[in-house]
Amino acid sequence: GIQVEQSPPDLILQEGANSTLRCNFSDSVNNLQWFHQNPWGQLINLFYIPSGTKQNGRLSATTVATERYSLLYISSSQTTDSGVYFCAGGRGSGNTPLVFGKGTRLSVIA
Amino acid sequence: EAGVTQFPSHSVIEKGQTVTLRCDPISGHDNLYWYRRVMGKEIKFLLHFVKESKQDESGMPNNRFLAERTGGTYSTLKVQPAELEDSGVYFCASRRTGGPYEQYFGPGTRLTVT
User: Fold this and answer.
1) How far is the CA of B37 from the CAs of A41, A42, A46, B46, B72, in angstroms?
2) How does pLDDT run across A23-37, given as a tens digit for each residue?
3) pLDDT tens string B74-112
4) Residues B18-50 pLDDT 10s
């Protein structure tokens, strides 16, 4: 199966700073999603982005499918951005399950 | 349109007891998935339903876990008997048949086995 690597594993930011999280895949995927797990354990859908670029407020994501990586940008970080960010990918018919990376733990301090 | 809902949000049980988790997918979504995150590790796939049929249960850890999807609507995941290592957050996701392949996740059930 595919392998998903996320970097960095941990990140500490001062409030207001920008950051870039990266996700590498060992093989091509046709489903790629980014999630935020908040401190209460809930998993929040951020982006469905098998290719291209999307933006949602202070967050944006870019996937370069031919090079098998995706980036998540967080601008003007806030303490509420803290938590673990996961990327996940799947390939094949679309019925295949998502394979998750180990996550990037982000701590934003005031 | 209501999102994926899960019940309960948190369950605390003793080792050896039974717990049943419930997931209600988004209406019209034939595909339903269960995942879990245990011991601070990565989120891992458990199984996949298409309507009421189990399409893929390769991620189920052992026979203490039983998943059902009655009538192709909501799904339950029963753990019997629960062990300490079952503690974690259990997520349900759903997706409509056909594209796009985006899976919509519920808020999860945090299971604590003491």
Assistant:
1) 10, 11, 18, 10, 25
2) 999 999 888 999 999
3) 999 999 999 999 999 999 999 988 878 889 999 999 999
4) 999 999 999 999 999 999 999 778 899 999 999
> Nearest-CA residue of chain A relative to B48?
A97
DSSP letters for B79-110: ESS--GGG-EEEEEEEE-SSS--PPEE---EE
Set of chain B residues whose Cβ sits within 8 Å of the Cβ of A103? 42
SS3 A95: coil
Q: How confident is the prediction for chain A on average, in pLDDT? A: 94
Does residue B15 contact residue B84 with C-beta atoms inside 8 Å? yes
- Structure tokens of A17? 């700073």
B42 touches chain A (CB under 8 A): yes
- C-alpha to C-alpha distances, B38 to A32, A42, A90, B63, B107, nearest whole angstrom: 22, 14, 21, 18, 15
Mutate to test the interface with B, among A4, A29, A45 (most CBs of B within 10 A): A45
**What are the structure tokens assigned to B40, written together?**
């601070």
Contact A45 B105 (CB under 8 A): yes
Could you read off the pLDDT of A59-101 as tens digits, one per residue? 999 999 999 999 999 999 999 999 999 999 998 776 789 999 9
Query: Which residues make beta-bridge pairs with B32?
Result: B49, B94
